[in-house]
Amino acid sequence: MSGLTPIRVRGRRKRVKLSHGDQNHAAPQVNRGNRRGKQLLPLDASRRSLYARRKRPFISGSSWLSSQPQSQLDSLSQLQYQHQSEPLPKKKKRKNLSRLERLPVELIEKIFLYSLNVNFARCSPSLAAAVSSERVWRVLILLAFWRGPPSPTSESEEGSGNCISAGVARILRPLNYAPLGEDERRTLQSTVFRCKWCTVHRVLNNLPDLMALTIQRLWIDAGITMDKDQQESLNQYLDSPTTHSTETLTFQGTKDTNTYTLTLAPLTSIRITSPETNKDTTTPFLNLLEFPPHLLRGGSHGFNNKDIAFLELLRVSSGFNRTDTNSMHLARNISLNRDALQEGIHKAIISRNHDALVTLLKIDEYYFRATTTNNTTINSEDMIYTLPAEHYRTSLPNIQTFKLLLRASAESVPSDDSSITAWAMELGGAFGNWLLDLMLRMPEIRESVRERPDAGVFYMGRCNRESEMGDRYLRDVLGVEGVEGWMGEGVDFVSLARNED
Length: 501
Hints:
By secondary structure, this protein is an alpha+beta fold. The protein has 22 helices and six strands.
């Protein structure tokens, strides 16, 4: 009887001994080279072979899988594809902080406020987190919109009134204030406007501090003294201006036997008068140097309520609501991109956003009137306030939009436009007939406006009753006694700040 066939078990190191009879029939030993049974490859060739095996589908060449149903093979192939397509997780590298980033937050804020460069916050996320706080944003808004004392031009002036007082330094904490030039402040203001955190509510919240800075510099630091009751009343108002009435407040003071009167328009401006010195100055709290073009243009989807509120805030707080001659000259120091504004008017017309349209028309007309009044370098033809004729064509057939454009500038209606003529004839009625007569008499109306700007049909929103076409508009179209100017109309910013979330 022959011996049993030996079974090779992985891991065994001892060979089974054969019997004396089976040793003669044992198979000859075969020299296999290495124990793996295959020839060793060079290192580079081994790597290529390993890569090729990894790329090869693991179901190929398998006798067990070849006998499985095709549906199971498809599912296995799908699992293999998903496993191979999943990206390997990346190891997060540990970043070492620089010396600047390891400084305390208070020191980082000091460095940032000293440099006044927004690129500082863009250097790293840790620096951006350190300077992204309400108190830093508050200081940037105060610096951008407050007209502080001028920079001293000599060493002798450093110890004079150009240096800030303790009251101003207290309001501007944590900033160590240094006077800014006009160009520096213009650059800072433009930069602040482009920041996402510069919102209408945040500027509104800082208007009380802007008001306190203006009063501190022009009233208290100017040496004007008040009696105890007046001083307590002013301090009480400055502590919480948004909780008081929106009516104008007045305070009395004296300096060198001269009497002074401080008139407060809440969250808008102050006026200081003195009959003995003939002083009469009005200073807005928000010292605007340029209307931001991106805000005038509106977003890609037009204007939202926050954009309109922001534009109204800038308009009213910059004095664009006062039509007296002494106040209008302040608008000459403010830059305005009329191309951007006309683009915004076009968007407001298309979207039928009448609130945004009225605000933009107010800003455009006021700026034009303020910059052309008593300007001898402009010829008489350029002194007529006009709007692009395309605005009137775009507003059709909405009669309300067309009337708003008329109230801004009736002299801008194109007298020979066929589409407007056809629309007026189709419209008929009192307004359609009035519009046809306006287009017919446009040359003589423009001639009268060239000689006297306030002789037009409308002037700053007020319907001119002295004009024949203005009188007919009031009597036949509107059926009212008069339409006053619209520059003084605006938003109650005290209530808006009070009702903020």
